User: Fold this.
Amino acid sequence: MGKDVIIACDFNSRDEVMKFLDKFQGKKPFVKIGMELFYAEGPKIVREIKARGHKIFLDLKLHDIPNTVKKSMAVLSSLDIDMCNLHASGTKAMMSAALEGLTRKDGTRPLLIAVTQLTSTDENRMREDLLIERPLPEVVMHYAKCAADCGLDGVVCSPLEADKVHKVCGKEFLTVTPGVRFADGDVGDQVRVTTPEKAREIGSDYIVVGRPITASENPVEAYERCVREFVG
Ligand code: C5P
Assistant:
C-alpha cells in the first residue's frame, strides 16, 4: 500500500478551497474534505474537486442505525470518493452494513476507515459520560480489532499508535494519522504530535496534515516537504 500525505482542507467555502488548490498548479495532492466544507457546499464540491484530479478522503464520520448508514454510504460511494469513515462505536452491525452500502455494482468501493475514540475523549469522560470503565488504549485497540474483523480497511489513530494497530490488526490494516507537525513548526492545539519522518518510522500509512500546509506562507513547499519527509 503506497504511503501518502493527505491535506486536511479545513475551509468553509468553495472560494477558499479553490484558491488554495489553485496554488498547486499541475500537482494533485490527496485531500480531506470535512463536515465544515461538505455542509457548506454540499456534494457538488466533492464532484468538483474530484473532477480536478484529486483523490478525496470524505471525513463525515457516520454513526446511525445500520440501514441508514448503508444507504448513506451508497450515496457517498456514488460521488467517486477514494476514502471515507465512520465511528466504530456504531457497532459491528453498522460497520458491516456500511461496507455493503459502499460497494459499487462493479465490486469496487472507496476505502473505509473507522474512528475509534476521538482524541477529544479522555478516560475520565469515557467513565463519567459513556460508562466505559476500561483503559482508553484497550478500548481503542478493541474498536480497531472490531473494524478489522468486519473487513474495514483501517483506522484513524495517532501516529504513535500505528505500530500497535499493525501488530493487533495486521500489517495491511491502514493507519490514517493526524497530529503531524514539522520539527520546527507550531504545534497549535494538537497535544501529541509527531513529525512526518517519525510517522514514517512508526509505520503510518497516510498522514493527515492541515495547518502546517494550509496556514503556511508557501503551502506547495510545505506539502512537498511533508512528502519528502514522509514518503522519502
Ligand atoms: O491542522 P491540523 O494538522 O491539526 O489538522 C488535522 C486534521 O485532522 C483536522 O482536519 C482534524 O479535524 C483531523 N483530526 C485530528 N485528530 C483526530 C481526528 C481528526 O486532528 N483524532
Notes: The two ends are 15 Å apart (CA to CA).
